[in-house]
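Dear support,

I submitted the protein below through the web form. The confirmation email said the job was done, but the results page showed an empty box. After a refresh the structure appeared. I'm attaching both so you can tell me whether what I see now is the final result or a partial one.
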Amino acid sequence: MARWQTGARDRLEQAALALFLEQGFAETTVPQIAAHAGLTTRTFFRHFSDKREVLFAGEESVPTLVQHLMAQAPPDVRPVPLIISQLGPFAETVFGQRHAVLGIRHRIINTDQGLRERELQKKATLRASIVDGFVRRGTDELAATLAADLAMMVLGTALAEWLNSDGSKPISAVVAKVLTAFKELATEVNLQDIP
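What the results page shows now:
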């Protein structure tokens, strides 16, 4: 068995990802993950509630981070400027140093319907947190919803592009690129054409 240089949680994550890729998520068991990491099943359950949590661990802190970033911004900053100023730092904090792991995670999630549903639930929770953050800042619910959808669209597009790259650019730079593309597209909209 290979020697691991990292802590138990990292060892378990690495073992799980390797096995999920090798034999499939559904076919991989917790005892197999623990054995592959050179640890016990009991140790696995000290770190993760089940094998899905290896892929989704840490997501529970993301809504709190959203609320924190939004609360830190001056109260007079409108939704779109807030998205422009905070989405890059947010993406860097959540995803920045995890390009390789997130790429593997993305491939694994796409192989399993239950994992795809869990990923959609995670995105819905993040969207709801953004809407709530804008409403708390005094934005009406319709504008808050549109702003949250914009933030999710930009983030999703940037994340997909970043994961399909070699990861040499920081994700914040990819977010900025997507925001620039959106701004260029938005300048083509003539508001007088909207009934």
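Response: this is the final, complete result; the empty box was a page-load delay. The two ends are 67 Å apart (CA to CA).
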